[in-house]
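FIELD: query
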Amino acid sequence: MQRPIRRADRALTNEQAIEILQKGEYGIPSTVSDDGRPYGVPVSFAYADNALYFHCAVEGHKLDNLASNPRISFCVVGATEVLPDKFATRYESAIVFGKASELTGDEKHSGLTALLKKYSTAFLEKGERYINSDIEKTRVFKIEIESLSGKARK
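FIELD: result
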């Protein structure tokens, strides 16, 4: 169960948190191994249809963790600015909790297309060819968002 935000005065609306997900350059999925070790690594991602999509290699640490426990947390940090004279930082962030599932077939293609539209909008045709030629060399996951919170210091 997700804890409430400690600083409620910095809580963002659901719409503001979604905007951070839409604009975020990268996110950090956090998983847990069988022996309870946490693991987080930055990835490219896309937000679409109230879910997050990311792709990765066909094997790796996070994949081992997801195979045994699909529960995941995903953090996106938006704009930041260090305020040295105030010993503080302006920031905005969003955190998702949910379950990750691997996509196959048309859903896998749709997940990769969402990433293509986010990161390479000027190269959609070329990107589509790339997806079709290399689709078996990548795995694609969808995170169904169970809860979303956002926080900011403006």
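FIELD: remark
The chain has a mean pLDDT of 93.
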